[in-house]
Structure of Solute carrier family 35 member F6:
Amino acid sequence: MYLGMMGNLVVFKILICVFKLRSQEMVDEHKLTKGNRNFNVLLLWMPAMCDMIGMSTMYIALNLTYASSFQMLRGSVMIFTAILSFPCFRRIPNFRELFGIFLVIVGLIIVGLSDWKDQEEKKKEEQVSKGHGNVAIIGDIMVVASQFLTASESVLEERFLLAKDIPPLQAVGWEGIFGFSTLIVLMIAFNFIYVGEPYASNPGNTLENPIDALVQIGNNWRILVATIVAIISIPIYYFCALSVGAELSATTRQVLDSMRTVIVWIVSCTALDQEFHYLQLIGFLVLLTGMAFYNDVGCSVLRNKCCPSKGQAENQEEQR
């Protein structure tokens, strides 16, 4: 992942050289390179660490819970982003936004209940080994906890990109360098930390096994292709995410990111043989409704049609 993010810095430097051959004005005006290119790069170390710890926690949780639940529970990042946006940007949520946050919390609880119900059914069918019966719930809790760090990363990036006017490509590249260098050091230590099942499934049952990972990539072309696709797609994703955060807001970025849940859920139920649970569908719909309320997706139009006078007054107040 961080290798792909580092590629953004290479692309940024290439664009600088190409634009300079044409004119210095193009470098300063093009949307990919304009902004403050001379800043203290250590400012990006903190969001990079938030991303690294948050993503590591999420990947451990992904081994414990279902991919669809993993994606749905990532929607909790909206709650933490809204909370952290108050001290950083003095954004006070209104009633509509608070109601949206409430619906998101209800949706998260419903999704968690669906996993709990599934684990109870598997216990009755004796499909879950002794001592591992609640791993899905543990994974769900870890996913929600990791979203606090993800929200911190988004808010910090938005703050730095706005205050320092840092080009998104350059920011992603430096975060990749910090994350890659830190993770390389940590992986050496993780290779000797025994955790056992179900938290690890590599030959040594250690927290990380980079040598085994490289062997698997070399022995299986499907894993190799997936790795290459990830390296290419990740820098594109991070650039788009940072651009949305800089142009709109960190909350909007996280909501758009949560929309891929639909694709993951469909694949999990069709290709990965995950059983369909109606509670997950209800929870997902409640989550989407909460996100729609929070981001005013269609709410203003509906309000103006139902209560034209009240809607017009509220719109004028928001413009002020």
